[in-house]
Each structure stands twice: as structure tokens, then as C-alpha cells.
Amino acid sequence: MNRTFKPARVMSDYEASIITAVANEFPQAIHSGCFFHFTQAIYRRIQSLGLITSYSQDSDIRICCRKLMALALLPIDQIETSFYNLRTKSSATVKQELHQLFLYFDHQWIMNVPMKMWSVHGYQHRTNNNCEGFHNRLNERILKAHPNMWTFIKCIQNEENRFRYLILQMNTGAQARKKLLPLVSFKTYRYIK
Question: Which superkingdom does the taxonomy of this entry point to (predicted)?
Fold first, then answer.
């Protein structure tokens, strides 16, 4: 059974080590960045530049920042022009307040990270939230920070069985089961059971 994993598309955050690893290991794959991580990086820069008060209280600043984040939703051939239009057509007050943010965006997202990586235009899935949700659920089910190999294998086997059961249910037309305790974590549920 000689199988090789050859994904058509890989989605990740924007860490340099991940970008390099994906390029080396999966050169045929389209590597796109997660829209959530893109907007999070911009929001963190807003925070680090001390703009959070302006962002919270000034609607012009907030709208401009959100437009900056929304550039990833545009087709690649419209991004650069739209960024420069946003920057030049902003009011003098907004330009002055967001000068450092505009410089950061130009350097990081226009010149440094390829636009084809962070543009999510036309993608059905723009974030990797489903993967992160799976990892969070897996961590909750393992119940240990550093499980031994047998605990991990047992957890993976249980997850496989769970998904086989869900697929069987879908294939037979069964209704999706509602969560019993949607606001209670799995750990808490174990203790009240």
C-alpha cells in the first residue's frame, strides 16, 4: 500500500516556517492563507500601534480598518489598486491616524506575502476554523496535556468510529442529532453524567 499524500490545496496561517514547509513538501499544492488569521494579524497590528481606542470610538477609523481587512475578499487583480485608493481617498485625519498601519499593510501584505496566498476571493472555504474546531474537540476528548501513545491511539480510534457512525447516519437519511448540552463542554458533561 504505497500511498502518497498530494493535497490540491493547503490552508494555514502565515507563519514563515509553515509557508516554507508547505512549499517544500507539497510543491504542487495551492497554498492559501486563512482569512481569519489574516484579519487577526491586522487587528493585532491595530492593537500594537495603540489604535484600539480610535478603532473602537471613531467609525471612520473602524470602517477604514475593516475595508483593509476586506481586501482579501477581492480578486487579486483589484487588491493593489483598491488598497492605494483606500489610502489616498481617506480623510486627512484617517490618513494621519492610520499612517503606520498603511505602511505595515503595504510592506507585509502587498510586498512581502504573495497576494495569491491571502486573497480568498472565490473560495468556498475561507478559513481553517473547521480544522481548528476538530483539534479543539480532540484535545477535549483526550483530557490530558501530554497523553501517552496508547491514549492518543484510542482517542483517534474513537473519533474514527464516531465519524463512521455519522456517515452511516447521513447515508441512511437519518436526521442530524441535536447536541444534548450545547453550552457545556465535554469535560463538564463527564462530571454531571
Answer: Eukaryota
